[in-house]
């Protein structure tokens, strides 16, 4: 199984186009969107190419391949533009290995407020706009960063899961961080 992760698009059409371009070329079987899809949020500047309705139009053809969770900037009005559900605060994905991916945005569940994780589970979230790929004792922590508003000098990024490894990649394809499950 190969999965792609993106977070914090914040209504940027160029970022959404890049996400879909990377998804199409990745060979991934699913696209996991970790919230803050359409709205820029009041604490952020307007991103380049801020066109939330067009971002929805770019994402909607992939509705059957998308798993999405709600970010702190997402609302019911945003949901009205999307053909896939995105109002849940979290979702789970079960891997063939039996490990679980806990998918959330990060404003509710995070390292300071952990969800119920079993040994080997992976906490995956966005929200901080800072990429992370690491083992945390009995669980793993993964954040693909932000495709629109990266922070702390990191490049815009996304994530891939393949062969029991989670990788954070820059939009240019540089490896920003990797964690392999069970290692």
From TrEMBL:
Query: Where does the Calcineurin-like phosphoesterase domain lie?
Result: 1-162
Asked if the keyword Zinc belongs to this entry, the reply reads no
**Xref: Pfam families:** Metallophos_2
Note whether Hydrolase occurs among the keywords. Answer: yes
The family database entries (Gene3D superfamilies) matched by this protein are listed as: 3.60.21.10
Matches recorded under InterPro entries? Calcineurin-like_PHP_lpxH (IPR024654), Metallo-depent_PP-like (IPR029052), MPP_YfcE (IPR041802), PdiEstase_YfcE_CS (IPR020935), Phosphodiesterase_MJ0936/Vps29 (IPR000979)
Listed GO molecular functions? hydrolase activity; metal ion binding
Q: What are the UniProt keywords, alphabetically?
A: Hydrolase, Metal-binding
Entry-linked CDD domains: MPP_YfcE (cd00841)
Tell me where on the tree of life, at the top rank, the source sits.
Answer: Bacteria
The record's section on PROSITE patterns has: UPF0025 (PS01269)
Enzyme Commission numbers on file: 3.1.4.-
PANTHER family found in the cross-reference section = VACUOLAR SORTING PROTEIN VPS29 (PTHR11124)
Similarity comment? Belongs to the metallophosphoesterase superfamily. YfcE family.
Q: Write the protein's name.
A: Phosphoesterase
Q: What is the lineage of its organism?
A: Bacteria, Pseudomonadati, Pseudomonadota, Gammaproteobacteria, Vibrionales
Q: Which gene encodes it?
A: yfcE
């Amino acid at each position: 199984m190969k999965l792609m992760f993106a977070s914090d698009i914040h209504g940027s059409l160029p970022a959404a186009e890049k996400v879909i371009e990377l998804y199409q070329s990745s060979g991934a079987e699913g696209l996991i969107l970790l919230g803050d899809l359409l709205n820029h949020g009041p604490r952020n500047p307007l991103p380049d190419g801020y066109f939330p309705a067009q971002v929805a139009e770019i994402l909607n053809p992939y509705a059957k391949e998308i798993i999405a969770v709600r970010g702190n900037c997402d609302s019911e009005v945003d949901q009205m533009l999307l053909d896939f559900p995105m109002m849940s605060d979290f979702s789970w994905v079960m891997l063939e290995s039996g490990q679980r991916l806990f998918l959330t945005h990060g404003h509710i569940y995070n390292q300071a407020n952990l969800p119920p994780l079993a040994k080997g589970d992976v906490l995956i979230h966005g929200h901080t706009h800072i990429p992370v790929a690491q083992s945390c004792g009995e669980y793993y922590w993964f954040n693909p960063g932000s495709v629109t508003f990266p922070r702390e000098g990191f490049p815009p990024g996304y994530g891939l899961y393949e062969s029991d490894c989670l990788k954070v990649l820059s939009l240019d394809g540089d490896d920003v961080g990797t964690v392999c499950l069970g290692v």
